[in-house]
Predict the 3D structure of the following.
Amino acid sequence: MARSSAVLARLLNADPPRLGPFRLLKALGAGGFAPVYLATETYGTMDLRTVAVKLFAIDADVDHPGSTGTGTFRLTRDRILEEARALCRVEHPNVVRFLQIAEDETHTVYGLAMEHVQGRSLADRLDKERVLPVEAALDIGAAVASALAAVHAVGLVHRDVKPANVIEANGIVKLIDFGIAATARADHAIRVQRSSPILGPDVMGDTMPLADVEGSTEAHGAGTPGYMDPVCLGSMAPATESSDLYGLGATLFECLTGRVPASMGAGPIASRLIPGIMLGTTPPPPLRTVAPNVPEDVARLVDSLVSPRREDRPRHAEWVAVEIARLKRAVRGRTRELPADGPFRGLGPFEREHRDVYFGRSAEIATSLELFRTRGLVALVGPSGSGKSSLARAGVLPALADGALGPWPATFRVVCFAPGSDPRRALAAALGRPALPADPDDLINALVAAIEGDGVGLVLCVDALEELVTVADAAGRAYLARVLARIGHAPVPGLRALVTARRDLLDPLLAVATLGPVILRSTQLVAPLDKDAWGAVLEDALAAYGYRLDDDLRDTLSGELSSTAEAMPLVAFALREAWERRDRTRKVLTRAALADLGGIAGALARHADGVLARLEETEGEGSRAAAKALLVALTTPRGTRARRSSGELAREVARSERDAVLAALVGARLVVEDSGGYTLAHEALLTQWTTLRGWLDALRDDRALAAEIAVAADSHDATPGRDRLWRGLPLATARALVARKTVPIEARSLTFLAASHRAELRARVALGTLVASVVLGALAVFVSYRRAEAQTEAEKQAAAAIVRDLTAPRAAPEIERARAIEALRRSVTACEKDLDRARSVCPELGDGGARRDSALGP
């Protein structure tokens, strides 16, 4: 490794030492081939921030300890980039953040720049306190376990979990120092020979001097003696997620006893280590033999973590995080039994009482709590069925209620509700108030005063916030939006708001005045669990009850989850039904139980159709039509769930059929009842139940038209006017909808259509009168015109006769000629007047003067 050391030395001996934009200041830690330096990120003459940079030297001729059979691996640029890519995917408040990668101009030195956490290490704390209180140790253990869950989720293994790599800063615990070659791939893991110096020359003795092992940790890429997985040392096996759990267990063991499991005597790391325990040939002492005052359940967990056999340790860090949270509550005297209905909720969300069996979301819970430290409102946004409600109710809210945000207030009261059609009334009911102040600011002031008075915080949880833009009335929408915006804009100690919203309806929510900007800067995206995460969640949930998966079912689930994992409600429902059919004798969940349901994909539809069939058998043929009407009424034309009161449903189905059908739907968990009325158990029914989807598709156009009529009716009621009434084809289409009776039409819509119809009738009468007048006028004009034409023709004939007489070759007295000409002029003038009157009514008659002039001649 000398040549690589020379490469790093050349960089570090520069004046000043720099790597890309980073000016290296001083060493923070050194270990083997990857020293860590404090650095300043600079651009030009400006210092931007302080970071920690871990340095790696690449030399094609140098191998580093820690690969396969040879005990070394080749450090390459691709390995470093792979590590950086994996670190970029870890987003967790208890994990040090990866910032960027830098390299020197020769491309032989790379640096991983990470967040520099300024705080006190757990090792320093143990140096001073030696043993921590149980609750303090559990707080640290919960944070580290949650961090490891996020690390393992992206395929990383930390491989050096120990007190020195746990930093406490501003009340936040951070896991730091991610070394290279930490991916879970076997070729990145260490294999240590039994003759390695890490075990020292005294390996077969009863103990080994610390001097022989101390400081050799990173030289072998395996971890730190005393915290290393015995399987790695004893069997030369690759480090895995279980290796990190051993390091966590050893850290907790030390926090509670003042020593690591493999040590003899006291001190942060005892003066001598026991090779048998380090190699896994000898089990460590039970924790309670060293610290009898530690609660038995706590000791049992720690003992399982430091077991020399990986199969005896917990399977996942997520399970450990949830179990430590349960133990913390037990230490505080808040013990309770696991939910009697089992680990799976079907279509219903996990609630606070299910938090001990709620797995797979520790990273999201931690991130939400971190947001709440600087935000008054946090929005959990994700696609339908991604688990937003469960994350809120079983994850974030219980943590807030237990005082996760700090010493004041120590606890929070949680109030949950959905906006529904009247958000203001829903908020009042949730708060237990008969009415709310007219001004939302007055409500906020009253809530703050109550919090300051009793010292108990308040969290408003608004589930399904999208109802503000799908079913809520305008006044209620504006009121609730102002309340939430006030909480989000100016965080008040002790008052928080947590909302959940569908991602596909986020744009309309962002358009709500005052509320949009608050949601935009406080959004946490929630994604459905993938196949691998589902597998871990399933195993952890069953383990909480002492159950396991049948081996045959494990393979079946792996295949089915590949196509259905993101349809979380579908999976949850199938698992709930399979749990009801579990093998209680062997305590296993069997493949046969799932097969009876039609598999994951078919379980929900099969169950729902079975409910309809049983209804027809017990309640008669009309029950299916009643069920259809009720289920359709519990949706919106936009394809979302709606919440309806009993009174609103009474308009859909007669009471004689409604009560029995509704009770059956609720009993089958297809419909749920709460303080706001009734709603579908989950939106998965809208997409996964073919029968309901077919009903909705067939009625989509009619329901959309009914909704359009309702909007027009509201507009007319707000500002009445003949121009807002419908007429013509739209009115005819609407009246045809009413006649079909396929969808219910609200009373105000019917009133609007009746007014539109009356207005159209009046318009028809007026139009008929006008048409009759026009026809009569035209007829009169036509008669006048014909008279004028006839008179003109007669005059033309008389004039022609006179002309003939005047031009006849015979003598006539002058007076007779003058009289004849005067008579002719009077006739022509009369004809001109008649024609002018005709042309004023019917311009299309044209100019008759030309015809007259041509007829009369000069």
Q: What stands out?
A: Residues 65-71, 183-221, 266-270, 848-858 have pLDDT under 50 and may be disordered. The first helix runs from residue 2 to 12.
